[in-house]
Amino acid sequence: MNVLPVMQRELRAEARRPVNNWLRFLGAASAMGILALAAGDQKTPAATLGAQMFVRLHLLILGGIWLLAPALTADCLSRERREGTLGLLFLTPLKAIEIVTGKMFVNAWRTFVFWLAVAPVMTLPLLLGGITRLDICTALALEMTALILAVSVGVLASSLSTSWARTMLLSILLSILTALVFGILISLALEVQAGYRDPTLWEESTWTEFFEQVMVLQTGWDHGWDYDSPWSVLFAVVPIAYRIAWRWTLAESPIFACLVAWAILHRVALRTQRAVREDDPSPARTRIERALFLPRFGGALLKRRLAAALDRNPVVWLHLRSTGSRLLKWGWCALIVAALCEAMTQSGGRIPRTTFANLAVILTAGLALSSVASFRRERESGMFDLMLASPLTPRQIIWGRAVVLWEQILPATLALVMFAVLYFHWRPRAAWGVWVTATYLANAGLMIPFAGMYLSIWIRGIVPAWIACLALTVGSSYALQPVAPWTAMLLRFFGITNWENLPQYAYLAAVLLLQWAVGGFAYYRLHRLLASRQISGLPNHPTT
Q1: Is the pTM above the cut of 0.85?
Q2: What distances in angstroms separate CA 48 from CA 126, 196, 491, one per listed residue?
Q3: 232 alpha-carbon distance from chain centroid
Q4: Gap between the Cα atoms of 523 and 535, Å rounded
Q5: CA distance 341 to 347
């Protein structure tokens, strides 16, 4: 196979991307932060501390592989198809399988660099002790298996679509599903090779308990063991047949991953060869899309709404007629409702207060990601320049896109608010913290679209733009923590002393004002930038 030219081309392209430097820094900084948090407990013995550090670092590496590898690989083939350079590669003597193999290897190397950045920090837990040979072999085998599988599903997702957003979402979902299936498979392989079922380890349990048991074998982490080295602890109390079966399972896992990668490689190569022709959708695909996505109810209402949106703001009209936007909107709603129902089931009919805050943070992070990616596809395809050349005013472009972003999370937000109102209407004191958090995140949600759209133009990478957007809108509360006591003193100076929780109200008011200032400044700068029609001179957005 003539893979070296593809590998050289991809490695030279990746060497010029700053995201790879940030990836190494992120891995090393996260590992050092975990060590600093674990070393804060001075009463823990050295051996136990070493085991805790080792398990936490393994959890960091494994989570980073399952999330970063598909995210980094998701656009490797779809970008070539989107930019029209895939056909140029086939004009060379290269074959489809050689192109896919080279891209898979380079993206696997990018993720392996993340592992190399964390590997030197792993030496400290080894020096502290408490780690057996079984723990080291288990961590290495599971991490290498996860790396092969995550890169493979990322390449598979990249071959299924030309849209960056779709391939990114699909790769993350496939990676999470693959991680769950792999955990179930190694659990079943352990039982089959052991020859019998140990009731003390694999008792009859609910789906949640079974999921926790499966994740223990992959991550080595469980609340009940207080971050001890669970592989050595677990297999020290089970029959020796389980220990032997686990060693065989570890040896077979990388082989299984290589076989899966080989099958995916050939499948993706076949799809890539066919995708060069860019044929029209087949009749079967057209029938399936019409059956699944054609409106069945309220068609007349949708037509009237589309006509009104086209007259008022064409940007909103483009969003309403898009199938992907409707799927994203109702997908968020289904996710929030399912998470709340699951939390209610696990808590015996009561939803923990932190669940509402966590789901609101997830919605806010999703809104920020959509905001910073809002102008990305238009700038890559050249549609953004056409939009600026159209009679649309900057105000129509900005507010139209902001309305589109708010509508994406509107059903999910209404579902979350409805659950919160029904659950906390009889507990006002317990709900005080929830309503403060909701006010803070709702205000951030109003400002995020403007900050995200502005950052999507000025910052090259989507991940740095996303982090900057969250830092400016959501993370601003940490910058104002020292200001809260002074604000409370100022209010007391003006005679406002009869309010309960006065410092908290003052702190919340200061944070809300800061968020409005950030959103107003972003809107002002974005309006001036669009009015000047000088977007073409700004840096383009290379993919991550």
Answers
A1: no
A2: 11, 32, 50
A3: 32
A4: 15
A5: 10
Asked whether the beta carbons of 137 and 250 are under 8 A apart, the reply is yes
What does the alpha-carbon distance between residue 501 and residue 544 come to, in Å, rounded to a whole number?
A: 45
Phi, psi values for residue 179, rounded to 5°: -65, -40
Measuring CA to CA, which residue among 325, 263, 266, 259 is closest to residue 99? Answer: 266
Listed in order, strand segments (DSSP E) in 30-120 are none
**DSSP secondary structure string for all residues of 32-43:** HHHHHHHTT-TT
Q: Does position 77 have pLDDT exceeding 90, yes or no?
A: no
- Pinpoint the alpha helices (H) of 393-431: 394-424
Has residue 223 got a pLDDT over 50?
A: no
* DSSP labels, 172-219: HHHHHHHHHHHHHHHHHHHHHHH-S--TTTS----HHHHHHHHHHHHH
C-alpha 542/C-alpha 526 separation (Å) is 21
Task: State the Cα–Cα distance between residues 231 and 220, nearest whole angstrom.
Answer: 6
Q: The tokens of 512 are what?
A: 């809300």
Radius of gyration of the chain from its Cα atoms, rounded to whole angstroms: 26
Where are the domains positioned within the chain?
4-277, 303-537
Provide the token pair at 76: 């490797």
CA atoms of 510 and 188, how far apart (whole Å) = 54
Greatest C-alpha distance within the chain? 81
Which H or E run contains 133?
Answer: helix 133-158
Which one-letter amino acid corresponds to residue 480?
A: L
The DSSP letter of residue 196 is S
pLDDT tens digits for range 183-207:
888 877 877 777 655 444 445 455 5
More confident residue, 430 or 349: 349
Q: Decide: 404 and 325 in contact? Cβ < 8 Å.
A: yes
What is the distance between the alpha carbons of residues 339 and 342, in angstroms, rounded to a whole number? 5
Q: Which tokens in the block code for residue 507?
A: 């702190």
- Count of all residues that appear for the chain in the document: 544
b/e map of 466-487 (b: 16 or more CB within 10 Å)? Answer: bbbbbebbbebbeebeeebeeb
